[in-house]
Amino acid sequence: MTSILVVCTGNICRSPIAEGFLRDALVARFGTDAPTVSSAGTWGVEGMAATPEAVTTALERGSDIGAHRARRLSLVRPAEADLVLGMAGEHRAALVDEPGMVDRTFTLKELVRVLESLPSVEPGAGPDSLGQRVAQAARTRQSGFTGNPLDEDVADPLGMPLQSYRAIAWELDEWIARLVDGLYGVVPVSATTEG
User: Fold this and answer.
1) Where are the beta strands (DSSP E) in the chain?
2) For residues 40 and 73, is the Cβ–Cβ distance under 8 A?
3) Are 3 and 38 in contact (CB under 8 A)?
4) CATH architecture, domain 3-184
5) Among 153, 159, 162, 156, which Cα is nearest to 55's?
6) pLDDT > 90: what percent of the chain?
7) What is the three-class DSSP state of 173?
8) Coil, helix or strand for 23?
9) Which of 16, 119, 142, 188 has the most crowded CB, counting CB atoms within 10 A?
10) What SS3 state is found at 166?
């Protein structure tokens, strides 16, 4: 089964929200065949709960991350993930020097922009196509695609008011939706018939 690892700094704000949104979107698309999604922090305190603001804003957008517990990146195995998504450039940089990680590690915004520059995936792509799509993105990046290097980071809302968390949750929800479409193709909206 394929897997995705989301990385931020403390694993109590951005990455738990992104993990929840991504997991929910993939389960909605693939059911029990969905890739597994987990998260970790470069400086995470093992076992710490997500901030109350992160839990609240994720729940407001339909994702329950109340049971989340932080994990420190050094205690997980990022090399086992098919894709690693950093919330900021510093998180990508923490991993790209690891053997075999550079072609599977992107910031969320970077990967979305790369995927949107590629030909669309035909609807119906399965969860196992993740590795192929990530490899295409890595080749595109290696060929000189730069996207928007001045806008790669998702801001860290730690210590900010609830409204800031809401803005970050909205941003993550939008980028995650684009990511899933970029990886697996846009699902056509079913036409409804009038009765």
Assistant:
1) 3-8, 36-41, 83-86, 105-107
2) yes
3) yes
4) 3-Layer(aba) Sandwich (3.40)
5) 162
6) 81
7) helix
8) helix
9) 16
10) helix
Q: Are 30 and 127 in contact (CB under 8 A)?
A: yes
Region of 138 on the Ramachandran plot (φ > 0 left; ψ -120 to 50 alpha; else beta): alpha
Query: Is 169 in contact with 60 (CB distance < 8 Å)?
Result: yes
Query: Is residue 71's pLDDT more than 50?
Result: yes
Question: Which class for 87: exposed (0-12), middle (13-18), buried (19 or more C-beta within 10 A)?
Answer: buried
Selection from 25-29, 74-78, 183-187 with the highest mean pLDDT: 25-29
Work out the pLDDT band at 33, boundaries 50, 70, 90. very high
Instruction: Say what the pLDDT of residue 195 is.
Output: 47
Whether 3 contacts 37, CB under 8 Å: yes
Q: Which residues pair with 4 in a beta bridge?
A: 37, 83
The whole-number pLDDT of residue 146 equals: 87
Residue 74's CB: how many other CB atoms inside 10 A?
Answer: 13
How many whole angstroms from its chain centre is CA 153? 12
Give the CA radius of gyration of the chain: 16
Least confident of 4-18, 52-66, 120-134: 120-134
The two tokens of residue 3 are: 């897997």
Angle 151-183-118 from CA coordinates, rounded to 5°: 70
